[in-house]
Write a structure and sequence with these properties.
This protein is α+β, with helices and mostly antiparallel strands. It contains 5 helices and 12 strands. It is elongated and about 145 Å long.
């Protein structure tokens, strides 16, 4: 019996010695591996937004008027005058006119993702219930804030309604003042090319007629340009009918009116020709607030 006990004791001692020779789990290696992964993450790269503004200018040439310049660039002459702070639409040769400002959207470079940052936060306070006193104070403050915001919103709504009504009155007044009752055809002839709303296409009507045919004002107004300073138009007349509408008569052989002259509807303003063109025709345009519109929407239907 004693011999058996000794054998069992020796076996137990051998097992204990074998367990003592095993290496512990590599906990430190895992920690270092985690740190090396964090170091490989990309760093944050940020840039301040850059706002670029493109400015387009025009240098006034001799013989040009504010109206002819606005016509060349399809701009509203009122906006052009306001942009350049012009009095009575007066300009002079050599003057630099600002045509428009175009804000280019802000440009951002690539922004890389930032590495996650984890911090230990004591969240015990999240489990605490608010006291009845603090809850009542919160509700009281919230009700007061809502009441103040409601009063402010009602005031804003009232002011906005007044502004809308005022704008409507002004719009109706301008519309009634700018309405032209009767347009007439500027020349008797045949339309050889119609209006196109596409860019760089025909901005009016090309009307073929005999050389020397009478070119007449399509509506009453004031001559704001008379000359050949606009490339591609030849001898040109521009008439201002009101604050919104202008009409133009191009490729004339001879002009019978001068700038600032007041004309009546149907008055002979020029003789048809082919200046700036290879055929005898009248190029006729109507502009509404600087933008070309289809004259056929305004002229009476041909018999």
């Amino acid at each position: 019996m004693n011999r058996l006990a000794k054998i069992i004791i020796l076996l137990l001692l051998s097992c204990l010695a074998a367990c003592a020779n095993h290496s512990p789990a590599p906990v430190d290696d895992l920690r270092y591996a985690h740190q090396s992964q964090n170091h490989s993450l990309p760093q944050v790269k940020t840039y301040n937004p850059i706002k670029l503004t493109k400015i387009v200018n025009h240098k006034v040439l001799r013989g040009e008027t504010l109206f002819s310049i606005a016509w060349r660039y399809s701009l509203d002459y009122h906006s052009l005058a306001k942009l350049n702070k012009l009095e009575a639409f007066r300009i002079y040769p050599g003057q630099e006119l600002l045509l428009r400002r175009m804000d280019i959207p802000s440009i951002y470079d690539s922004i890389y993702s930032a590495p996650s940052l984890i911090a230990a936060i004591n969240t015990d306070f999240l489990n605490k219930k608010p006291s009845r006193l603090s809850d009542n104070v919160y509700k009281s403050n919230r009700q007061a804030t809502n009441k103040r915001n409601l009063v402010k919103n009602e005031q804003k709504l009232s002011n906005h309604s007044k502004q809308v009504k005022e704008h409507r009155k002004q719009y109706r007044a301008r519309s009634s003042n700018n309405k032209i009752e009767n347009w007439i055809w500027p020349v008797n002839g045949k339309i050889v090319q119609g209006f196109s709303a596409k860019q760089n296409q025909n901005k009016g009507l090309d009307i073929k007629a005999k050389k020397g045919s009478a070119v007449r004002a399509t509506a009453p107004g004031k001559v704001v340009y008379s000359g050949n300073g606009l490339k591609g138009y030849g001898q040109l007349v521009i008439i201002k009918h009101n604050d919104s509408y202008l009409s133009a008569y191009a490729h004339n052989n001879k002009i019978h009116v001068s700038e600032n002259e007041v004309v009546k509807a149907g008055q002979r303003i020029a003789d048809l020709g082919k200046s700036g063109s290879d055929t005898f025709k009248l190029h006729f345009e109507i502009r509404y607030k600087g933008k070309p519109v289809n004259p056929l929407n305004y002229l009476p239907k041909a018999g």
